[in-house]
Design goal:
Blueprint lengths: L1 E6 L3 H12 L4 E7 L2 H8 L6 E5 L7 H8 L7 E6 L5 H8 L4 E4 L4 H12 L7 H13 L7 H5 L4 H11 L4 H8 L3 H15 L4 H10 L4
Parallel strand pairs: 1-2, 1-3, 3-4, 4-5
Helix pairs in contact: 2-3, 3-4, 6-11, 8-10, 8-11, 9-10
Pfam families: GerE (PF00196), Response_reg (PF00072)
Organism: Mumia zhuanghuii
Keywords: DNA-binding, Phosphoprotein, Transcription, Transcription regulation
Length: 214
């Protein structure tokens, strides 16, 4: 069972999300909060796998809450909710450890599938969206200047996987392209995240782009 927490200051939005996710037999909404501060309080005592996090909220916004959640011993995957697909706040949330984002008007079946994917460690962003976000990073001058030095800690095979992640490929696509099993791809991705001290695949993609490898 995938345990989900809903964090949004709009009770109607939370109710809608709860209704949508409640239709899936492998997903359970186990916690809710109306702002980031309340979310941190709840999630310190309630184990969840995925948090659907609104960005703009009173008291503590989703950006600050996402950064704080990454400090928990068993940090959940965070998916930010937004109304714009290239919102500056989304970029900052991804930099702070969010695993991806969903538009608030995402169709119900896509929402359910997205929760399942992020819970399984799959990428949340399509190649076109990844490219758009990375372009925004570069345009803002917020790139990682020592990306090549960071990537130097990777083995040759890990670097190939990192470049594939930078191209927005899924684990299955990487497995096919690099002729390895999906389990091996997952193991490589896990080691890459550890070596780069990255919280998610988007951060790996940004590093690969900053290093000029994609």
């Amino acid at each position: 069972m995938i345990r989900v927490a809903l964090v949004d200051d709009d009770a109607l939005v939370r109710a809608g999300l709860r209704l949508i996710l409640g239709g899936a037999d492998d997903i359970a909404v186990v916690a809710e909060a109306g702002d980031g501060a309340e979310a941190l309080s709840v999630l310190r005592t309630t184990a969840v796998d995925v948090v659907l996090m609104d960005i703009r909220m009173p008291r503590m916004d989703g950006l600050s809450a996402t950064a704080e959640l990454q400090r928990l011993p068993a940090a959940p995957q965070v998916v930010v909710l937004t109304t714009f697909d290239a919102d500056d706040y989304v970029l900052r949330a991804l930099r702070h450890g969010a695993s991806g984002f969903l538009l608030k008007d995402t169709p119900p079946d896509v929402l359910v599938d997205a929760v399942r994917k992020v819970a399984a460690g799959e990428p949340m962003l399509s190649p076109s969206v990844t490219e758009q976000l990375i372009r925004r990073v570069r345009d803002s001058g917020d790139g990682d200047g020592d990306a090549r030095a960071r990537l130097a800690v990777l083995s040759e095979r890990e670097l190939e996987v990192a470049v594939a992640v930078g191209r927005g490929m899924s684990n299955a696509e990487i497995a096919t392209t690099l002729h390895m099993s999906i389990a091996t791809v997952k193991a490589h991705v896990s080691r890459i995240l550890t070596k780069l001290d990255a919280s998610n695949r988007v951060q790996v993609a940004i590093a690969a782009h900053d290093a000029g490898l994609v």
